[in-house]
Request: fold
Amino acid sequence: MKKQFYSLLKGTFLTDSDASKNWGFILFLSALSIVMISSAHRADRKVMKISELNREVKSLRSEYVALKGKLMTLQLESTIRPKMEKRGIKPPENPPKKIKVVRNLNKEKSAKTWLAIFQKQ
Reply:
């Protein structure tokens, strides 16, 4: 047992007559370890990229919520009215009139209806 351990430490298994079998296995283990290491590095890079993208999504979401709140306040009539009054635009005193569209097959009758609507105004 002691001899085998010393021969392992000295590396005689690499220089013996059966060394070609050992070298093939060593090269296989080396290639396998390189593949495993590169795979682990690639997985780490992907995890880091995912965490970076999650941080960016959280940042953009908070910015979206802030801008949405600001837009809601800017759309209020109480905010718009003073700005429009500075430009000389005031809200109408009379409410808007509702226009009813009557669908008739007779074109002549529908033209008379439209004339009647415009003459009332």
